[in-house]
TrEMBL record:
<protein>
    <recommendedName>
        <fullName>Fructose-1,6-bisphosphatase, cytosolic</fullName>
        <ecNumber>3.1.3.11</ecNumber>
    </recommendedName>
</protein>
<dbReference type="GO" id="GO:0006000">
    <property type="term" value="P:fructose metabolic process"/>
</dbReference>
<dbReference type="Pfam" id="PF18913">
    <property type="entry name" value="FBPase_C"/>
</dbReference>
<feature type="domain" description="Fructose-1-6-bisphosphatase class I N-terminal">
    <location>
        <begin position="11"/>
        <end position="199"/>
    </location>
</feature>
<dbReference type="Pfam" id="PF00316">
    <property type="entry name" value="FBPase"/>
</dbReference>
<keyword id="KW-0460">Magnesium</keyword>
<dbReference type="GO" id="GO:0042132">
    <property type="term" value="F:fructose 1,6-bisphosphate 1-phosphatase activity"/>
</dbReference>
<dbReference type="InterPro" id="IPR020548">
    <property type="entry name" value="Fructose_bisphosphatase_AS"/>
</dbReference>
<dbReference type="GO" id="GO:0046872">
    <property type="term" value="F:metal ion binding"/>
</dbReference>
<keyword id="KW-0378">Hydrolase</keyword>
<feature type="domain" description="Fructose-1-6-bisphosphatase class 1 C-terminal">
    <location>
        <begin position="203"/>
        <end position="332"/>
    </location>
</feature>
<keyword id="KW-0963">Cytoplasm</keyword>
<keyword id="KW-0479">Metal-binding</keyword>
<dbReference type="GO" id="GO:0005829">
    <property type="term" value="C:cytosol"/>
</dbReference>
<dbReference type="GO" id="GO:0015979">
    <property type="term" value="P:photosynthesis"/>
</dbReference>
<dbReference type="GO" id="GO:0006002">
    <property type="term" value="P:fructose 6-phosphate metabolic process"/>
</dbReference>
<dbReference type="GO" id="GO:0006094">
    <property type="term" value="P:gluconeogenesis"/>
</dbReference>
Length: 336
């Protein structure tokens, strides 16, 4: 009978966050309003991704972004959608997007206390072939929204108030943590609402999948080479792990959260900082992993403790099931 009740008493994301926020007597609904605007952006991008072929949104926009990559039209569109949604929420003061070289300082009249860092469209190399892509975001609170500087966003990931992603896959899924565990919502297209389908996600303590771009193996550091060798030829007689690598961080992390295992974009000789961006890729995903009971490691320490110096800074990251990350740490410790 519980199923019957759920079908007529839907836990939408707004209702869920309102419930969570009501635990704080000082809460005035600002966070719920901000989140509603993020959700609106995700629905818009989801719809654009689904119509991409039809709307001729595919292909290169002929611009190059701050990372020196050619931007796809959907990246440009998604960035605009989120910038507009976030500013118009009236709840943000500072925005950092992968697609914008400079941080956006919101005009005083439209300011609120939240700082949002985001990757509007992650996995852009997968757009054209219909593979899952996503949006990643992290939220900080400003100390004083009237005296905002870039330093307000150059904060370690452990100061984030919330982080999440939306995956535009076989279904559209929104996964978020506000610091009390991780919850997943699936878009019901007939209602246009995200419904709680994956309450209190916990990553399995140990997994049997590893996920890494092995094309970079030539330049890897020794602990990563040794760990990946061990995934294929385990020394303790256990079964080898399976390899899965989508090439969209959102999809690779989503699978890792649900099935367990490890995802790595490690440092290598050519890229000592790895590839992934600290503020809007590494931090939000590390936050979610820890909240789900996993770990996130840089090869040196806890990912969330890094203090960014630049908004588009990169960092190596190794994250996933608690035991699997411990295993990688052991290879690093042994190589010292
Ligand atoms: P983006 O599309 O936002 O630039 O991010 C791409 C990232 C990430 O999604 C993925 O994990 C990684 O690039 C894949 O990189 P490789 O192609 O080097 O494996
Ligand atoms: Mn990019
Ligand atoms: Mn990305
Ligand atoms: Mn991107």
């Amino acid at each position: 009978h519980e199923g019957e009740a759920k079908r007529t008493d839907l836990m939408t994301i707004t209702r869920f966050v309102l419930n969570e926020q009501s635990k704080y007597p000082e809460s005035r609904g600002d966070f719920t309003i901000l989140l509603n605007h993020i959700v609106l952006g995700c629905k818009y991008v989801c719809s654009a991704v689904n119509k991409a072929g039809l709307a001729k949104l595919l292909g290169l926009a002929g611009e190059t972004n701050v990372q020196g990559e050619e931007q796809k039209k959907l990246d440009v569109l998604s960035n605009e959608v989120f910038v507009n949604a976030l500013i118009s929420s009236g709840r943000t003061c500072l925005l950092v997007s992968e697609e914008l070289e400079e941080a956006v300082f919101v005009k005083p009249k439209q300011r609120g206390k939240y700082i949002v860092v985001f990757d509007p469209l992650d996995g852009s190399s997968n757009i054209e072939c219909g593979v899952s892509i996503g949006t990643i975001f992290g939220i900080y609170a400003a100390k004083d929204k009237d005296k905002i500087t870039l330093d307000d966003v150059l904060q370690p990931g452990n100061r984030m108030l919330a982080a999440g992603y939306c995956m535009y896959g076989s279904s559209c899924m929104f996964v978020i943590s506000t610091g009390h565990g991780v919850n997943g919502f699936t878009l019901d297209p007939s209602l246009g609402e995200f419904i709680l389908t994956h309450p209190n996600i916990k990553i399995p303590k140990k997994g049997n999948i590893y996920s890494v771009n092995e094309g970079n193996a030539k330049n890897w550091e020794k602990p990563i080479t040794e760990y990946v060798d061990n995934c294929k030829f385990p020394q303790d007689g256990s079964s080898p792990k399976s390899l899965r690598y989508v090439g969209s961080m959102v999809a690779d992390i989503h699978r890792t959260l649900l099935y367990g295992g490890i995802f790595m974009y490690p440092a290598d000789k050519k890229s000592p900082d790895g590839k992934l961006r600290l503020l809007y890729e590494v931090f939000p995903m590390s936050y979610l992993m820890e909240q789900a009971g996993g770990q996130a490691f840089t090869g040196k320490g806890r990912a969330l403790d890094l203090v960014p110096k630049k908004i588009h800074e990169r960092s190596p990251v190794i994250l996933g099931s608690y035991d699997d990350v411990e295993h990688v740490k052991a290879f690093y410790a042994a190589s010292k």
